[in-house]
Amino acid sequence: MNTTDITTLTSIDSVTLDVADVDAARRFYADAFGLTSQVRVRASDAATSGFRGYTLSLIVSQPANVRALFDSAVAAGATGLKPVEKSLWGVGCVVQAPDGAIWKVATSAKKDTRPAGREIDSIVLLLGADDVSATKRFYTERGLAVGKSFGSYVDFAMPSSPIGLGLYKRRALAKDAGVAPEGTGSHRIRIDGDGGSFTDPDGFAWE
């Protein structure tokens, strides 16, 4: 690959999800998470089945906020895949939006320090990779620096990006989300970044 012909990738401005009902999807993301600009939607009937190969994570400051976002998502129509529960690393839950996208809400904090709220500290897109090393190399050749990397997990350093990016072995990502790893067809997501238009080794499209 001639890296001199590649536009450097530094930021993800938003993601665009393929949905059947645009108005309903916009209403869900506003009601469930208070998201408007970071998550866009477009009408599509692209065929897909099973796990779509990615998850979106909302990182918050305390367990009460995890519960608040879980409750608002379910009230807006999401399906709970994993309830709010403690683990060695913190507190988290997983829900599936009516359009099929899988969302994780998590915090590394073990205790609450203030009343519950729905403030979101950061958003992270985790892509399921068949070969994490190859996909990591693909993105580093496009200018991304690796922030953390261990085993089958990679977190890219994108300090100025509205949405962070990470890689996880596809099967491990599905297990973390509480779904079967099998899936075929469209990912039903477009990643809107500053690195030009391309498709990564796992079929994720960027524009």
UniProtKB/TrEMBL annotation:
Cited SUPFAM superfamilies:
Glyoxalase/Bleomycin resistance protein/Dihydroxybiphenyl dioxygenase (SSF54593)
Residue span of region Disordered: 184-207
Q: Which domain of life is it from?
A: Bacteria
Looking up Gene3D superfamilies in the UniProt record yields:
2,3-Dihydroxybiphenyl 1,2-Dioxygenase, domain 1
Name the record gives this protein: Glyoxalase
Its taxonomic placement starts with: Bacteria, Bacillati, Actinomycetota, Actinomycetes, Micrococcales
